[in-house]
Design goal:
The structure holds two protein chains of two kinds. Chain A is mainly alpha-helical. The longest helix of chain A has 26 residues. Chain A is globular and about 75 Å long. Helices cover 63% and strands 5% of the residues of chain B. Chain B has a five-stranded mixed sheet, sandwiched between helices. The relative contact order of chain B is 0.11. Classes of the chains: A mainly alpha, B mainly alpha. Chains A and B meet through helix 13 and helix 16 of A and helix 10 of B.
Chain lengths: 455, 504
Amino acid sequence: MNDNTKIGDHFLSHLLYHQRKYLSLLLLIIISIPLLLRSAAQQPLLAGGETYYLLAAAQQGSSYNPLAVLASVIPDAGIFLLSPLLSLATLFLFFHLAKRLELSETTTFLIALFAILSPAFIFSSVTLSSALGFLFLTLSGFSLLLQENNTKYLSSFPFIIATFFDLYSTAILLILLVSYFIFTKKIKGIFSVLLLVIVGALLVINKLLLKLPFILGPFHIQKIVPDLISDFGGVSGMGLFAFLLAFISIIVSGKKKSFLLSLPLTMLFIAAFLLNTNTVLFVSIPIICYAAAGLKSLYEQRWMLPSLKKATLFLLILGISFSAVAYLDRLSDYSPSATDQAVLSEIKSAQKNGAILSAPENSYYIQYFTGEKTVFNLHQGEYRKEQELAQKIFMTTYIEDLFPLLEDNNVSLIYLNPEMKENLPSDQGLVFLLQNERFKLLKASQNTEVWSFIK
Amino acid sequence: MKSSTKILTGIFLLTLAVRLFFAFTLPEFTYESYFHLRQVDHILDTGLPLYHDGLSYGGRELRFLPFFHYFTALFALVIPIEIAAKIIPNLLLATLVITSYLIGKKITNHETGSLLAAFIAGFLPLLFFTNAFTVNALFLPLIFLTIYTFINLQGNKSLKNKKQQKYLSAYLILLLILSLTSPLTALLLIGFGIYILLSILEGKKINRAELEVILFSAFFFLWVQFLFFKQSFVEQGLSFIWQNVPSRIIVQYFPKFSVGEALVLVSIIPFLAGAVVVYRSLFQLKNKKSFLLISLVIATTILSWLRLIRFKQSLAFFSVILAILFASFYQDTEKYFQKTKLSHYKKYLLPAAIVLLLLSTVLPAVTTAITQDRPSEEEVTAFLWLWENSSVDATILATLDEGHLITYYAQRKNLIDDRFMLVKDAEQRFQDLTSLFTTRFQTQALEIAEEYDLEYFVLTPAAKEKYNLKRGFPYTSKRCFELVYDHETKIYQRQCQLEETQIT
């Protein structure tokens, strides 16, 4: 028994000491799995609405989003490496900051481990994600700001770049900077004031001149619970076990100072998430920290039943890992597929004037592959109206109702992929009404169809 | 042998004898049972549960917890499955008598009260479906045995004495089995949550070891469910709770909580006695011994009220707790008699209780057993005829309840049955099933039949009653539907198919 304990302790010490190597390796493996699976299925390596929104913006040169700007200068074949590199760099920056902030090895390890295993971070690591870009720039900024020498002035560059994503993240940056300067009692320093003024001014300029959105997205139909807990079928989010662990941690450490200090920012993240689930990476940060604190407290507490303690901790790690594995399995199936890419590339030449109608979440890759407009653009502020319009168009019973809707929205092509065909009823609604003579089947390939609408 | 042990053995044997009498006197099983029988059959043949069912819904994926089926399959190795399926559930449910007595004794230390509780648990009308071969038969005895072991963990802080170590081991084994038996185990865990909450509210210090056991139980249960139902979680999200039941019949499965119906199904005496005990324990006596049971009552009530759990399943669980709480009620009543001028009537208390219980539980229990919803022998013969006379890949129409009869007896594909989980078009299929039993138009019937490739249409007397069909399907003309089986149950074979015609 004693020998076992010694072996266990030795293993843990070794793991904590070499955590940077092991966790980086784990991250690399986790990122590689969906990329390899997609590559094996000859699917486009990148998935996700935001990815294609940014890629389309990069093509058109129409966005100030730092990721879109970066994507416009990187060769197409190398773009898929951008997010994995960003996430790896973010992990290293976190390790660096954790050391500077004197976080314990165990806490650092658990936060990094839960982050790597969280679907929100995995999704951001294999797609183009403004939230991850912002996180990387903010951590870079703070890493430089914590330097004692003149290097700290360089922090203004990542902070300035970080303001070009959206107004919400800029506001968070401002709050973080103000909090940092207050806690370190540097609020009256010239550099601090200057930095705050610059970021504050950029917030106003970005709103008034560049017309940046308050929160970028959403890029899919939002569902609060699944978008938060990935095990319920969301696009990303947190694993159920990590979420429960965080919940327990909140109950146990509800009166601790560190928890109370984190509460305002957590509430802000939750409020933003309720408005727009594309901010899930932000809300997952406090959840990951609480879950790590929860597991640490369970581990450090003396249990009356030590064997039960081991079993509980094992179950938790297993549960969190299973959520990640189940998510990785799903991630490789996300649109676009190889057929989507092939069919849409053909449309590119066929499309004349008008917009393409498809499920709202397909719009972004359709825009990227065809270079044409789509009926739905969920991120453009009128989210509810777009959702209602989608419901009306796809579920309408009579052609007398459908045709005016299609004409009003200037629809020229209809793109149906297998997922849409599976989810939409075949005996009523749009799929049923396609039998009308005003629709003509242009292309059908592997359960994917392109119809033209004759005006 | 102590006299109480003799009486308890007597109650157990009486319960078992009555249950087995009805089980073997009444032919066949309840409709739902055939699904489980088929699973046991499959386990006996292949060693694995049927997670890809080629017959149900014409072929679909299935997910369920398989312990009950493996458990029965063990017995079915020795005795024929039809016999095992009648003996095992009744034997298991009869053991509730013993568990209820043990829990009642633990919380009241009152012999007579506990024996009366055991008697009520043995003859609860809601559990007197003697021909039901369902997971509930294992789940209910197991969960109450788990509760008993947990109650025995309370008290000693460190759980270090040998007896408690044994209870802890038993608890963990039972939890493992329960987690592999029914997702309804969640009731126990939610009950634990309410137990912690109540204890905090009442200023009762919770034993640390108890908390550790509860925490482990919660994560273990979740983990097991996650392993089995991962796909359902992903595909249905939180709707997983409602098991994809079509919206038109969801009210049948998750009805509004009705006190009136609960009174009838649980039986009036234990229900009222339970309500009194819960009220007194919570608001007057602050009785800590029955906190866990009361927490379970609250958990069940809240979940049923919020329609998060099937009404009849929750009521089955609820009724056993109320039966156990009767021990406490009887003890309190006896004390009350002693304290008041009515003390000389105390000797009449037990006979009065026995008479009242006989009238309020045994009679309704017998009625429940006699009126169980199950197919008649003639109906079963019709499905067996289909097995002998239809092509192997034929799809057959029957009512929702009879779906499992098609897959079990006829061994053919059905249009629909009551296992809705993971079926994407369950709503549509249910709508089409209703149309096929209610439409007057042959073209509509043929269109639907063609869509699902339905070849045989079965019309049992039960179906006629359900859909109020006095003669038969209104659309079955001789040209298009040949009557191939003509008894009380009628079977039609489809001969026509719709063709597109050009209107000139």
